[in-house]
Amino acid sequence: MNKLLSILFLSLVLIACNNQNNGIGITQSKNTQKESHSEVLKPLVTEFNAIMLKLQTEDDIAATQKKLEVLLSKFPDDNNASIQVQKLELKILLQLGYLDDAYILSTKILEVDNSASIKETQCLILRKTQKPLSQIQNCYENAAKLYQAQYEMLNKDEPNAQYALWGSYAAMYQAGHSEYQQRLKALVDVQQTEDSKLTYQNMYENVVDPDVMKGILEAMPYKPR
Q: Rounded distance, CA 219 to CA 11, Å?
């Protein structure tokens, strides 16, 4: 697999949450602000998608990175950028290997959006940059708490509920709590269909096989400041 395409797997960790505030009391000023943020985001997303589409056919990593550098320079340099703009910028920072900047930006995002997936992305950054084991383990434990909170807010019959519970168990396993391997296996065993059982079995193997994490970390670029 193309090395950058391996890196793009990390984008799955950063799927944006579309938790819109649809209350009746939204003011006109908030609507105007959302429209302004949308105007900023739309051309950035369009250009980002075009770059990724081009990569599928050309497979030119150097050219892709150069285009991403140009795109990165177009992001607003202020503290008022929307969460969606910041999440897109985070994807680009990760793909270019600016992990120190990515960690700072992800911390800023987490201040207003407690996304378990973004917290887990921070854990990957800590692993890649070889931070102390205690710091990495604490990061995964905090990610597990966020997944657990997400699980508790969902109807337990929803498919997303099982995914959230899986995320909590997997994060605890990555934090060094080996007993969670059995809990992960139990989630595989309770699946009712062959498709879901295969999906969860693959997820299980990706969590417990150390070579998978090793491959992800090796694929992540890192350009220290």
A: 13
Q: Cα-flanking dihedrals φ and ψ of residue 20, to 5°?
A: -85, 145
Nearest to 220 by CA among 107, 121, 131, 88: 121
Alpha-carbon gap, residue 60 to 106, rounded angstroms = 28
Tell me the CA distances in angstroms from 102 to 1, 187, 200, one per residue in order.
24, 33, 30
CA distance 30 to 90: 24
Rounded mean pLDDT of the chain? 84
- DSSP string for 51-79: HHHHHHHH--HHHHHHHHHHHHTTS--SS
Contact 52, 92 (CB under 8 A): no
Q: Is the dihedral of CA 22, 26, 32, 33 positive or negative?
A: negative
Give per-residue pLDDT as tens, 149-199.
999 999 988 889 999 999 999 999 999 999 999 999 999 999 999 999 999
Could you tell me if 83 and 109 are in contact, meaning their C-beta atoms sit under 8 angstroms apart? yes
Confidence of residue 146 (pLDDT cuts 50, 70, 90): very high
Q: CA–CA separation, 10 vs 91, rounded Å?
A: 8
Nearest-angstrom CA–CA distance, 103 and 119: 10
Token pair 């980002």 is found at 48
Each residue's pLDDT tens digit, 213-225? 999 999 899 998 7
Query: From CA 119, how far away is CA 109, in angstroms rounded?
Result: 10
C-beta neighbour count of 202 within 10 angstroms: 11
Q: Are 216 and 124 in contact (CB under 8 A)?
A: yes
pTM for this structure? Answer: 0.83
